[in-house]
């Protein structure tokens, strides 16, 4: 084939001429670079290849990573994982081969991506997020993504979202905002984990996390400073009272002193806030994760203690009374999962008191059906959004819309098994959730999210809005 025939076959002559004319009109200083970029933009962007692999998350447990290629570049994403999964969330696909990674390998999920998902998605436009996600849902054919694996589907969905943003030449958070129909962008208030218990730590604290929220900061940058200073002063206080061993950290970076009660932990945190000089500018939140110590209809606050007294069993009514008293004494503004995941009645009764934000995690599992039920029945007033519980970016956007339309708060949340992927930072800004929970202001996989938010705030410049006192309703 001659050069002229090649040009005619691919209609290159007209395209090159258009690119040269555009360079002339723009008075391009580097016409070759200008023409190259102009030609790239004229090519329809499609997914050309998807390659998955098994990597390790922050706990040293396997998870799925995906490289998604378009004719504009390569885009990488990884799926996070929780300490436990519930019956109402999308299913992680694990190998179950105890001879490898103690049964926790994800080679089946990786194979599904490389052999099934890739074939279905190659040729699709990465800007069409909902179509990509629906194609994977259709391919899976199960309600809980148990065929392909939610870990496989999510990693591809996030990678496609990044590719879509690149094709549109906009930041990832802006692309997410476009997908959701949002016009405003808000930097969330970070809920920094400072003391850990429950399944996240080896101490005797029954509840899972005590967090601090710098709602009085004037910017996200100042919020990070306030959180970091308080965190390090808390470390000093714990050393004073419990010795250096009390500063061992949990899976998400919170300190794990062997305290004997919840009030002792809250006292430590309050002292650190006061010592930092922030007073009412920092509020406190708790993730109780009460399902983990619910036995029948009662709650065993000594469930982690080797020397159980048998005197610390509480009814749901006792727990509600305890929370009410704690909110009077400490600046607690949010309590997550105060009761068992199926105890809708007491969660509703406690929410109706209007004492604080009541957030559903195990209760809702980011599941739209359970979220709709909770909205209809006024069960709680905030959603804890964990993208791996629902499985795709599109479904995450939809469940956030449900919550927002009900005037709920939304907490964009990490998982205990995290990766260096900072996607949820952009998600929180793009959906203006107002709150983000990504662990302590330490450990690289946690800081990846907070540091990305610092970059986003810098990029937005004068347009940056920090949720601050309006953290619940954005």
UniProtKB/TrEMBL annotation:
<dbReference type="InterPro" id="IPR020809">
    <property type="entry name" value="Enolase_CS"/>
</dbReference>
<dbReference type="InterPro" id="IPR020811">
    <property type="entry name" value="Enolase_N"/>
</dbReference>
<dbReference type="InterPro" id="IPR000941">
    <property type="entry name" value="Enolase"/>
</dbReference>
<keyword id="KW-0460">Magnesium</keyword>
<dbReference type="InterPro" id="IPR029017">
    <property type="entry name" value="Enolase-like_N"/>
</dbReference>
<feature type="domain" description="Enolase C-terminal TIM barrel">
    <location>
        <begin position="184"/>
        <end position="474"/>
    </location>
</feature>
<dbReference type="GO" id="GO:0004634">
    <property type="term" value="F:phosphopyruvate hydratase activity"/>
</dbReference>
<feature type="active site" description="Proton donor">
    <location>
        <position position="252"/>
    </location>
</feature>
<dbReference type="InterPro" id="IPR036849">
    <property type="entry name" value="Enolase-like_C_sf"/>
</dbReference>
<dbReference type="GO" id="GO:0000015">
    <property type="term" value="C:phosphopyruvate hydratase complex"/>
</dbReference>
<keyword id="KW-0456">Lyase</keyword>
<dbReference type="Pfam" id="PF00113">
    <property type="entry name" value="Enolase_C"/>
</dbReference>
<feature type="binding site">
    <location>
        <position position="336"/>
    </location>
    <ligand>
        <name>Mg(2+)</name>
    </ligand>
</feature>
<dbReference type="InterPro" id="IPR020810">
    <property type="entry name" value="Enolase_C"/>
</dbReference>
<dbReference type="GO" id="GO:0000287">
    <property type="term" value="F:magnesium ion binding"/>
</dbReference>
<comment type="similarity">
    <text>Belongs to the enolase family.</text>
</comment>
<keyword id="KW-0324">Glycolysis</keyword>
<feature type="binding site">
    <location>
        <position position="287"/>
    </location>
    <ligand>
        <name>Mg(2+)</name>
    </ligand>
</feature>
<dbReference type="Pfam" id="PF03952">
    <property type="entry name" value="Enolase_N"/>
</dbReference>
<protein>
    <recommendedName>
        <fullName>phosphopyruvate hydratase</fullName>
        <ecNumber>4.2.1.11</ecNumber>
    </recommendedName>
</protein>
<feature type="domain" description="Enolase N-terminal">
    <location>
        <begin position="47"/>
        <end position="176"/>
    </location>
</feature>
<keyword id="KW-0479">Metal-binding</keyword>
<comment type="pathway">
    <text>Carbohydrate degradation; glycolysis; pyruvate from D-glyceraldehyde 3-phosphate: step 4/5.</text>
</comment>
<feature type="active site" description="Proton acceptor">
    <location>
        <position position="386"/>
    </location>
</feature>
<dbReference type="GO" id="GO:0006096">
    <property type="term" value="P:glycolytic process"/>
</dbReference>
<feature type="binding site">
    <location>
        <position position="361"/>
    </location>
    <ligand>
        <name>Mg(2+)</name>
    </ligand>
</feature>
